[in-house]
């Protein structure tokens, strides 16, 4: 990997080596000429490095946001996407992968046939200011979404994105989770059912741990500078509950599993991303204690990075068959 510290010499490398889901629109390297044509603002951040390659500085949050905006507009027709400074700026290709593997999960529960798209309803836990999963899932598969967050300011920004995309907004509902310790309680109503839930949980146990992890990332990439040392929250950003919670991702997911048992008939597949493989044994033990009928771990390879999500259901075979008959 080329490790240039000058801010105009950074080139995307994770996409170059990617092995995304076959339906993922972001295969291979970014097509910067096309993206700039789609969203000319991106051109302000694209530079040619010493090897004659186009790229952006991933240490510059404005550049990362401009790239995301262009990708969302070019691939999904998303207009006027924006997020406040320091909020989590999600890497679009990886987020799209989760959505496509969720579609496979549904098809796998329906004899390999994708259920009728317009009937699928998905709960996005912690949608953030970016609202990325509902935007991609609605655009790619026509799913309806309920997107929740504990931060009213994040939901206000997500609503502004929806207002700029009225066709998508009709299928996406935002709900404030008024209790920071609750996950499903208060946002899953008695008269609704979800075919999927998804979540990108906070994976650090404290702000200090989150900052240390970011510093290690910069050092491993050969891009640690005085700038990144002074402000480790650069790149894809993130703050507060977006990055950390007490006990980290394992504690959060265990709490999610325990609470999912209280709404076990309201959802077919509960799912969550799991960043750390070391979290899996504790998660599996929690699933066993909760008495789930079935659980799966789906691995996603994205270049040098390996990600995964865990899915579980409380529905027995007869209940699953009834769900398919009524909803799919």
TrEMBL record:
One of its GO terms (cellular component) is cytoplasm. Its EC number is 2.1.1.181. Its main location: cytoplasm. It catalyses: adenosine(1618) in 23S rRNA + S-adenosyl-L-methionine = N(6)-methyladenosine(1618) in 23S rRNA + S-adenosyl-L-homocysteine + H(+). One of its GO terms (molecular function) is 23S rRNA (adenine(1618)-N(6))-methyltransferase activity. One of its GO terms (biological process) is rRNA base methylation. It is found in: Cytoplasm. Signal peptide: none annotated. Keywords: Cytoplasm, Methyltransferase, rRNA processing, S-adenosyl-L-methionine, Transferase. It comes from the Bacteria. It holds the Pfam family Methyltransf_10. Belongs to the methyltransferase superfamily. METTL16/RlmF family. Specifically methylates the adenine in position 1618 of 23S rRNA. HAMAP family: 23SrRNA_methyltr_F (MF_01848). This is Ribosomal RNA large subunit methyltransferase F. It comes from Sulfurimicrobium lacus. The lineage of its organism: Bacteria, Pseudomonadati, Pseudomonadota, Betaproteobacteria, Nitrosomonadales.
């Amino acid at each position: 990997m080329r490790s240039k510290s000058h801010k105009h010499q950074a080139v995307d490398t994770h996409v170059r080596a990617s092995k995304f889901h076959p339906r993922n629109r972001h295969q291979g390297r970014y097509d910067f000429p096309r993206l700039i044509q789609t969203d000319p603002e991106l051109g302000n951040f694209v530079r040619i490095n010493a090897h004659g390659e186009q790229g952006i500085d991933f240490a510059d949050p404005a550049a990362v946001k401009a790239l995301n905006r262009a990708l969302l507009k070019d691939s999904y027709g998303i207009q006027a996407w924006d997020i406040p400074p320091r909020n989590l700026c999600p890497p679009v290709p990886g987020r799209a992968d989760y959505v496509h593997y969720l579609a496979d999960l549904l098809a796998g529960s329906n004899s390999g046939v994708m259920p009728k798209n317009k009937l699928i309803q998905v709960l996005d836990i912690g949608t953030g200011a970016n609202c990325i999963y509902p935007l991609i899932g609605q655009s790619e598969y026509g799913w309806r979404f309920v997107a929740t967050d504990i931060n009213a300011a994040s939901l206000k920004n997500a609503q502004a994105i929806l207002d700029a995309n009225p066709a998508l907004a009709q299928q996406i509902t935002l709900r404030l989770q008024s209790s920071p310790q609750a996950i499903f309680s208060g946002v899953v109503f008695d008269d609704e059912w979800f075919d999927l839930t998804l979540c990108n949980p906070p994976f650090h146990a404290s702000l200090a741990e989150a900052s240390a992890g970011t510093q290690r990332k910069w050092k491993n990439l050969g891009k640690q500078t005085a700038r990144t040392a002074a402000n480790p929250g650069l790149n894809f950003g993130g703050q507060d509950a977006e990055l950390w919670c007490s006990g980290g991702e394992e504690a959060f997911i265990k709490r999610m599993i325990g609470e999912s048992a209280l709404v076990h008939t309201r959802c077919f597949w509960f799912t969550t991303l799991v960043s750390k493989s070391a979290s899996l044994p504790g998660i599996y033990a929690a699933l066993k204690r909760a008495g789930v009928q079935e659980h799966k771990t789906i691995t996603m390879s994205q270049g040098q990075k390996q990600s995964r999500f865990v899915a579980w259901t409380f529905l027995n075979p007869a209940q699953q068959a009834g769900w398919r008959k009524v909803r799919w």
